[in-house]
Amino acid sequence: MHIPVLNRSRHPLPEYQTAHAAGLDLRANLDAPVTLGPLERALIPTGLSLEIPVGYEAQVRPRSGLAVKHGIGIVNSPGTIDADYRGEVRVLLINLSNEPFVVNDGERIAQLVVARHETISWQPVETLSATQRGAGGYGSTGQS
Question: What's the short name of a Pfam family annotated to this entry (predicted)?
Fold first, then answer.
């Protein structure tokens, strides 16, 4: 699949880091470092704008290394980039640790995964089919 991309950053286009990786690493495109204090969040630019095909979305996901080593996550994870959005991809990082974290220009801050999705139409009904789980919600499975 080919994705049209505008790269207004100082960095190369995102690449897969291994042959079977699902996500491409997104890099921060910053004029100056951004420091995130504990529980602070910031919208970090990437300098990239994409043209996602209709029937697909791009998902912005956290990087596991930043999460485990520094407590850095993404507030709205996964963030969705719709096929009709043409603006810059920005990543809403949050620092869930007790220590300040500095985001530097060119740092890999998130992953981008492109995935197919379906467009639905609602079918109003009076009842739904029965299942073993039924309406059991949070924590209801696996209990006897």
Answer: dUTPase
pLDDT digits (tens, 9 = 90+) for 54-78: 999 999 999 999 999 999 999 999 9
Residue 119 annotated as lining a ligand binding site: no
Q: Is 29 annotated as a binding residue?
A: no
Q: According to the annotation, is 121 in a ligand binding site?
A: no
- To the question of whether residue 81 is assigned a binding role by annotation, the answer is yes
31 labeled part of a ligand binding site: no
Residue-range domains of the chain with CATH: 5-116 (2.70.40.10)
Find, among 84, 91, 18, 34, the residue nearest to 56 by Cα.
Answer: 84
Q: Is 35 annotated as a binding residue?
A: no
